[in-house]
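for the writeup, i need someone to sanity check this before i put it in the appendix. the sequnce is what the collaborator sent (i think, or maybe the updated version? ugh). structure was predicted straight from it, no edits. if anything looks off just tell me and ill rerun, i have time this weekend
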Amino acid sequence: MRFGIVFEFKFFSFISYYSNSKIMKYFSLIVITILISSCGSKYGKAYRYNSAGYKEKRMSYNMFEVTYNGSFYGDLTKAIDFCLLRCAEITIERGFTYFTVPHQESGMWSYLTKNPDLYGTVGGSPVVLEGAYTTDTPRAVAQNLIVCYNKKPDRPLTYNASTTIKNIKSRYNL
């Protein structure tokens, strides 16, 4: 019992000693920065049908459909850029140098989102209340249909994949 009291006293005196120091101020600044930065769109693969990130579908040998879902109430410009970045990455991954975008769509789209089911018991019997679907969560979405080439085609909206990757990654510090 005495050890617990001594430990608690020393721990709290340690916290109170450092609470006014520069260390705690810097620590607080770091924690706040991490929390704020975690709220934005992150570049990466989408793991569910409507989660944030990119997903792609191969349409033919050199044609792909690429979609990027931003975070809820996200930045549309960022979603368009991240979709274009994934288009450029696919082009390089498949051994091509250039790609064109014959069709593109973007905007703030609302998805059906399923709320979690609730499990419990009533009078000892198991009960499941299924979660409802909601559509009030708009997110920034960009979708491109791309065609990849080895030689630069004479078409509008033609991109050099490696230059596109370099430009977008430097813009967002990726």
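The longest helix spans residues 76-93. The chain has four helices and nine strands.
thx in advance!!
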